[in-house]
């Protein structure tokens, strides 16, 4: 029986072309994520009621410096993460391909390490609290994740396994068989849903008043959502061990869940200790 599939909307990867210059949707997605994230962080900093003692630990001018370092962390960490975590043999035999970022190939887990280093450097440079900086940065990360996964869809990359679900899509370059649009699952869970959870924690539960709680929720939430989405992306080149349905993305996400749980526990215990000392 023939399996029906939704036709792939053949969107040109190039969004804007002026003469020899072209701008791809992939680059616009990263730009949109960073700029919207920057605006959201500025809004959080300006809302003093969200912070302990009604005072943000960062000033608005400091956010501009933070954006610059985070941008470097995202680009350099994300690219090196893809090279080292997923296709080291390919890129080591073609080292010049490493610099062709416009062709796609960014690993979120590598980006996390790059951003973590950027946050640490910024905290040392500007004398800001490390956990508070991490909280405000990770609050905005799902925005970039959403746009990044949409760009993956346009580029027809990070596709899922063959499927007969009604919304399966036959992606170009992957044969005629319909597949899970796994990148759209990630845009929904790791982007929209995770942003909504962090927004609720920040604005309804006051998580920014407890340094480390927001970043902990982000790490744990992303790790769990990524593991779920990886179930729809199991392919031979992503499998970590032969014969085991465990992908590299799953393995790299487990430490994030554990680290997130640690930060949540640490923040909650610090709050309890503070209340005990006051009473």
Structural write-up:
With 279 residues, the chain is mainly alpha-helical. It has one domain (27-278). It is built from eight helices and four strands. The strands form two sheets. The protein has a two-stranded parallel sheet. The chain has a two-stranded antiparallel ribbon with strand order 2-3. A hairpin with a 2-residue loop joins strand 2 (14-18) and strand 3. Helix 2 (60-85) runs antiparallel to helix 4 (108-126) and helix 6 (182-204) packs antiparallel against helix 7. The termini are far apart.
Distance between the amino and carboxyl termini: 71 Å
Q: Give the structural class.
A: mainly alpha
Number of helices: 8
Poorly predicted residue ranges = none
Radius of gyration: 20 Å
Please provide the count of β strands: 4
The portion of residues forming beta strands comes to under 5%
**Count of the domains:** 1
Tell me the series of helices and strands, N- to C-terminal: EEEHHHHHEHHH
Helicity level: 55-70%
Largest pleated sheet: 2 strands, parallel
| Principal-axis shape | globular
- Order of strands, main sheet, comes to 1-4
Overall residue-averaged pLDDT value: 88
């Amino acid at each position: 029986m023939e399996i029906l599939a939704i036709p792939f909307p053949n969107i040109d990867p190039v969004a804007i072309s002026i003469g020899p210059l072209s701008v791809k949707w992939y680059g616009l997605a990263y730009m949109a994520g960073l700029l919207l994230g920057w605006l959201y962080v500025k809004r959080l900093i300006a809302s003093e009621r969200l912070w302990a003692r009604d005072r943000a630990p960062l000033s608005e001018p400091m956010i501009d410096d933070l954006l610059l370092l985070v941008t470097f962390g995202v680009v350099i960490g994300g690219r090196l993460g893809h090279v080292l975590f997923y296709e080291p043999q390919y890129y080591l035999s073609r080292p010049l391909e490493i610099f062709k970022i416009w062709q796609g190939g960014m690993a979120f887990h590598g980006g996390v390490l790059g951003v973590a280093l950027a946050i640490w450097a910024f905290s040392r440079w500007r004398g800001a609290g490390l956990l508070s900086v991490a909280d405000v940065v990770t609050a905005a990360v799902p925005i970039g994740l959403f746009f990044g996964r949409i760009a993956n869809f346009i580029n027809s990359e990070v596709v899922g396994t063959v499927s007969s679900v009604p919304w399966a899509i036959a992606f170009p370059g992957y044969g005629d068989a319909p597949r899970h649009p796994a990148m759209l699952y990630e845009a929904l869970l790791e982007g929209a849903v995770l942003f909504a959870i962090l927004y609720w924690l920040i604005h309804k539960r006051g998580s920014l008043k407890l340094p480390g709680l927001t970043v902990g929720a982000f790490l744990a939430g992303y790790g769990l959502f990524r593991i779920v989405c990886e179930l729809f992306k199991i392919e031979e080149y992503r499998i970590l061990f032969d014969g085991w349905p465990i992908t590299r993305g799953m393995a790299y996400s487990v430490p994030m869940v554990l680290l997130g749980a640690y930060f949540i526990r640490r923040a909650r215990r610090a709050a309890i200790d503070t209340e005990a000392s006051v009473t």
